[in-house]
Amino acid sequence: MLAPLLLRGAILSPFKRPRPDAPLPTARPTLSDVRPSAEHLAAYSRLCGFRTAPRTLPLTYPHVLSFPLAMRLMTTRAFPLPLLGLVHTSIEITQHRALTTADTLELSVHASQLAPHRRGTEATLVTEARVDGSTVWTSSSTYLARHRTTAPTSTRTQPDSTPAPAPALAEWPLPRDLGRRYGAVSGDRNPIHLYPLTARLLGFPRAIAHGMWTVARCLAEYGTPESAHAQADFKAPVLLPGTVTYAADGPDFQLRDASSGTTHITGTLRPLSTS
Asked: Is 220 exposed, middle or buried (0-12, 13-18, 19+ CB in 10 A)?
């Protein structure tokens, strides 16, 4: 159950003073003998729009399986960023082969670095999934704790500007309860995603969609090969309710606000080279 971890993270959050030179925890939480549930997989796939084979794991699904480990790490006293208000700012995923509910996974998460960001301090968490000792899936996620800072930018390599708008391919109305629905499937019940009031208490005008739902929905629309590398930057929060435009051109995809044109996500998806 994630509720005790969420409560612990909420209690510890006011006592944490994030800074980019803070020490990182050395813990590496691990979970063995993970067998994905067909029922949970189906619920996740429906919510995110994946049309993969019934027992095939979508590219983003191991992130959900490993989320309890990430929570275990981020709610320790040693983790320097407060859990409340933490914002997912980017993700990279590499999958070496198709994964199914028949696979028995070993999952682990560790913190790899802290970096200054123009809006605060950013932490990088690395997740690995192994089958029979071989790494089959990895991800690297950055999370931002917003606070006053004089740092000019993040040390993470980023494009100099947002790419030119790609051709619009679809438009999606997003309901006001999307954050609660995805939270129920993923376990991520950060208050910024749940209700307007809880989001406002943490600096947002109303609830925002989970970054992992938005990137999963984009990848579901794009279609993913069995072995692939995906990367996405979360540029601006998606306010709920709202309407967004999905766009793609070659390996690049984007998610934009349907009214203002604000770019919410830029990303790429490429098959892994077989050479």
From this structure: buried
